[in-house]
Design a protein that fits this description.
The chain is an alpha+beta fold. The protein has one helix and two strands. β1 and β2 form a beta hairpin.
């Protein structure tokens, strides 16, 4: 495991994200993981592309 020298270390960054799932009928489900800053329209587009609608 590589560790940076102490003088070059940066504090750890916390990433905030969401995981949302949807089910289309009983045989198909999909989960999208996205950063909290992503607009709602992009999330909806990901589901449309994933479900082929």
């Amino acid at each position: 495991r590589y560790t940076q020298p102490q003088e070059n270390k940066r504090p750890p960054v916390a990433l905030l994200y969401w995981v949302v799932g949807r089910q289309l009928r009983h045989e198909k489900e999909m989960f999208v993981c996205f950063h909290e800053s992503i607009p709602q329209s992009a999330i909806e587009m990901a589901f449309r592309v994933g479900f082929g609608t």
